[in-house]
Amino acid sequence: MNKTQSIVVASLIIGLGLTACNSGNTRRNPGKVYAPDMTYSRAYDAYTYNPNFADSQTSRPPVAGTIAMGHELPDHLVEGDTNAYKTYTTALRFNEGEMKEGQRLFNIYCAICHGAELDGQGPLYKNGKFAAMPANFKDAKYLHMPVGQMYAAAKYGKNMMGSYASQLDVKQRWQVIAYIKQIQSSNGGDAFTLGNMPVAAPQANAAADTAKAVEKKDNKG
Ligand code: HEC
Questions:
Q1: Any idea where the domains of the chain sit in the sequence?
Q2: Which of 5, 119, 126, 127 is 20 to 30 A removed from 195 (C-alpha atoms)?
Q3: Which helix (H) or strand (E) segment is 86 a member of?
Q4: For residue 115, how many C-alpha atoms fall within 13 Å in the half-sphere facing its CB?
């Protein structure tokens, strides 16, 4: 290597060193790093400060109205749309495995009050600890209850019963109701055949009620 070559090589090495030291993202990482573009993402990392949004958050919520994959469309009715819910039903149809899952979910979320036998004698009530009697689904009062009304109870709660909207997604709520209907059918309730969700008889004012209700927004899913 002659003198000129040595100078060229030396200045290249020094130049490279300086580039590596200075081109790092100095705001976030003042330290020295070789090839910083490969070490640090040029995109904003989740949970980091982001000057592009008014709230400085990089992680954004989904666009309003987004429906997660595998989830059902929301029903667009709101609490208090009692008549509309009486004729409300679902297009979902369940197979044997899904019915079993409905039973499992019922036993987890509902049986503590409504009883594993669906007779309203769950341990929370039977032992005298719960102030109101949970619905006895084998009682004539509930045997023909429209599925939509049951759905509304699961979604919003009813008097002393709380809402199960956060524990059960739309499909799961219908699975639980299908299970209740199945048990009711062998206790004097409406006929229930696998893969069929019984629909309530339409009511006189239900159409108008439904039309009004679709106008309203509902974000509870
Ligand atoms: C903490 C106790 C409790 C739990 C748990 C519970 N319920 Fe209830 N439920 C009640 C009570 C009490 C009532 C009676 C409300 C009334 O009519 O005042 C009721 C009533 C109902 C009704 C009748 C609604 C109506 O319009 O009259 C349905 C349907 C129902 N529950 C479904 C469910 C389902 C499905 C679950 C599980 C996801 C569940 N409940 C869990 C206490 C409970």
A1: 1-60, 82-215
A2: 119
A3: helix 82-86
A4: 16
Question: 82-215: which CATH topology?
Answer: Cytochrome Bc1 Complex; Chain D, domain 2 (1.10.760)
Residue 200 has what pLDDT? Answer: 52
Tens-digit pLDDT profile for residues 137-194: 999 999 999 999 999 999 999 999 999 999 999 999 999 999 999 999 999 998 888 7
Ligand 1 pocket test: which of 161, 166, 173 has the largest number of ligand atoms within 8 Å of its C-beta? 161
Task: Fill in the amino acid letter for 41.
Answer: S
**SS3 state at 49:** strand
CA 148 to chain centroid:
19
| Lookup: tokens for 215 | 């106008």
Say if ligand 1 is within 6 A of residue 118 CB: no
Q: 112 CB under 6 A from ligand 1?
A: yes
Residue-wise pLDDT tens digits, 181-219: 999 999 999 888 876 776 554 443 444 444 444 444 444
